[in-house]
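Example 9 (inverse folding). The structure is encoded as follows.
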C-alpha cells in the first residue's frame, strides 16, 4: 500500500515539474538562401502549435482580435502577426507580459494604432471597428 502511494506522489511530482518547464521547440531546418526581400513581404499564417499561449507559461499571455474588417493585417511591435481570423480564444497570439504596440492595417481604412497591456496567464481581447477613409 505504501509503495502505491509513493508511486502516485512521484507521478504527481513529475507532472508538476513538466508543467513548470518552458516548452522546448524543435530545431528549425536550415533554409536555402532566399532572393532579396521585396518592399512588402507576403503575409503568412502563424506557425501552428509553436507560439501558442499556454497557462503553463507564467511569463506569457495572449491577444485575441475582434476586428472589422476581418481581413485587416495585424502588426505587433513592428512585425507582421497575421489576420484577426488566425487567432481565437483557444489559439490567441502569444506574447510576453507587458505593453505591446498593435497596428491594424486594411485597404480603404485608416490605420489604427494602440498600446495593449498583456497580462501573464490571461488572454486580452482587442475589439475594434476600423474607420473608412
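The amino acid assigned to each position is listed next.
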Amino acid at each position: 500500500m505504501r509503495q502505491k502511494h509513493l508511486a502516485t506522489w512521484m507521478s504527481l511530482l513529475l507532472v508538476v515539474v513538466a508543467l513548470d518547464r518552458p516548452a522546448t521547440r524543435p530545431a528549425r531546418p536550415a533554409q536555402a538562401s532566399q532572393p532579396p526581400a521585396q518592399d512588402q513581404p507576403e503575409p503568412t499564417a502563424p506557425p501552428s502549435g509553436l507560439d501558442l499561449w499556454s497557462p503553463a507559461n507564467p511569463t506569457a499571455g495572449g491577444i485575441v482580435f475582434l476586428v472589422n474588417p476581418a481581413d485587416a493585417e495585424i502588426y505587433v511591435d513592428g512585425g507582421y502577426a497575421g489576420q484577426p481570423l488566425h487567432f481565437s480564444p483557444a489559439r490567441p497570439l502569444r506574447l510576453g507580459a507587458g505593453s505591446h504596440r498593435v497596428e491594424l492595417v486594411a485597404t480603404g481604412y485608416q490605420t489604427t494604432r494602440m498600446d495593449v497591456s498583456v497580462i501573464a496567464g490571461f488572454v486580452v481581447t482587442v475589439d475594434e471597428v476600423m474607420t473608412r477613409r
